[in-house]
TrEMBL record:
Keywords: Hydrolase, Protein phosphatase. Gene3D superfamilies: HAD superfamily/HAD-like. PROSITE patterns: FCP1. Probable phosphatase. This is Ctd-phosphatase-like protein.
Length: 187
């Protein structure tokens, strides 16, 4: 596999999406932001205004103790790299970063193929606000509500107890399937 040795001690890899899962970014000027980034694209500099989903710092600290953390984003590297540097300035939480060039683009949407991690899919969990992205490995995917700016959002906190139940299991897929996907089929 391509992941570090600590991945084996942590056993399970938790893959997190960025936009509308952990943060919301916009090019529109706004005041109540957590930070701004200067990103150069289309031949000019842009200011990107970033808000962090409530409880993000605590969430990252907690999940980094339980899992090997990977950020897998359909965003462009030029933006996402800077953003992850701000979320994890000491590079002690997130062990791997995967960007748009590693996504598959088909039928107008990006898909994240988890096999590129090079680890056993029984030990991989992805949290993403766009369920289409994990359509190739539905039973590895935990959908989360898209977040834009609601300051009272509790989704990350509410996800923690479920994630804790996955630590050390042989195969995450039947557990995720039972918890999340049988309800999707009924809707």
């Amino acid at each position: 596999g391509r992941l570090s040795k600590s991945a084996r001690s942590k056993q399970i890899t938790l893959v997190l999406d960025l936009d509308e899962t952990l943060v919301h970014s916009t090019l529109d000027h706004c005041d109540n932001v957590d930070f701004t980034l200067q990103v150069f694209f289309n031949m000019k500099n842009h200011t990107v205004y970033v808000r962090q989903r409530p409880h993000l710092k605590m969430f990252l600290e907690k999940v980094a103790q339980m899992f090997e953390l990977v950020i897998f984003t359909a965003s462009q590297r030029i933006y996402a790299e800077q953003l992850i540097d701000r979320l994890d300035p000491d590079e002690r939480l997130i062990s791997h970063r995967i960007y748009r060039e590693s996504c598959i683009f088909s039928e107008g949407c990006y898909t994240k193929d988890l096999t590129i991690l090079g680890v056993d899919l029984a030990k991989v969990v992805i949290v993403d606000n766009t369920p289409q992205v994990f359509q190739l490995q539905v039973d590895n995917g935990i959908p989360i509500k898209s977040w834009f700016d609601d300051p009272s959002d509790q989704e990350l906190v509410e996800l923690l107890p479920f994630l804790e139940t996955l630590v050390g299991v042989e195969d995450v897929r039947p557990i995720i399937s039972k918890t999340f996907h049988h309800t999707l089929e009924q809707n």
